[in-house]
Structure prediction request, 358 residues.
Amino acid sequence: MPIKLLMTSCQSASDIIAMHGVDKNTFRKFRNYDVPQEAVEAFRADRSGALVGNMIARRYGWKVGRNVVLQELDGISFNISGVFTTDGSADDFLILAGRRFLQEAVSEQGISNRVMIRLKPGADPDATARAIDAMPLAVKTVTQREETFMSASIDQLRDMVTISRIVIVVIIAVILIAMGNAISMTTLERTREFGILRTLGFRRGAILSMVLSEGAVQALVGAVVGCAIVQAIISANLLKSVSTCGVTITLTSGYAVWLTGVGVICLGGLLGSAAPAWRASRLEIVNAIAHEE
Amino acid sequence: MASKLLTLAIKNMFRSKTRLIATTGCCIISSLIVCFLLTAQYSLGRVMRSAGDSQNLVMMQKDRY
Prediction:
């Protein structure tokens, strides 16, 4: 299926609008679009009809039946025939229109930017891609798996992921220092108290657990509050998406993210309080009681 | 025993409210950054998985972007 691609400048990382001119009869073979059948019928019947991704519809408050004019895209005007959702793909920020309609709108009749090819079950994608590129066409082509294509498109964001991993390690180090400092101060102030607790029969293990649990509880509370704030920000649509040229990624979270986040912070808290907790549990009773604040 | 220790630990935390706020605040901010970065990674992974599951090939003209 040939696709005519139009999009606004990718200088900005937000508010990129991408329109794909597709074949109205075959576009659903290439992706699982969740869209009512009557919307698809309306899309096919209306020459200037368009199906819009649910995320872009939400961002701009677009409703079915509305006429939209995109000044930044040569003043293209289209009618919204329906709103679709896809399962986690970047298409939720796309506008699908008729290919010929888009080509005529920008006076590029017959010109498409890319071709989508649906493989038959069992077909070897790499061999098929090589065979297509070896065909004697009027222009030289590059054919690749959609995954590879997407990977190249979001290369800038992949750099961000690499950086983010480094940032996470730095944050653990910061928590270690902050927690270590706070718990060290607490244990130092309570040296005599630990001596008294030992005199009363508290074992070293009990003191170690008590100090460790202080660090863990503080880290846990901080982590849960932090996760709740991020979820609230995402739910309130204050931070909706990350964009790179032609691809907009909706920010979504899941239990795995929250559990990992809480786990990372708690681990930092526990490790940070480990050394002062160990010192507090190793105090000699006589020295601890004789300690002056 | 464990619950007694936990109660004691929580009571001790509230001895110095300034320190408690500073330490927990540090954890909150760190957690915010970590969760945001993890969310971005998770979302990126979702898109890549979705593209990886598909049986589609993309053909473009060579050296034209």
In short: The helical segments of chain B are 2-13, 17-53. Chain B touches chain A through 53 residues (CB under 8 Å).
